[in-house]
Amino acid sequence: MRRDRALALLSECTGDDIWSPEHCRLRGIPEAWIDELAEAYESGFRADRETIYEGGQVTNQYHGIRDVFLAIKLGEVLGVDAHSIEQQHGRPARIVAAIKDAVFEG
Question: Cα(19)–Cα(10) distance, rounded to whole angstroms?
Answer without folding.
Answer: 13
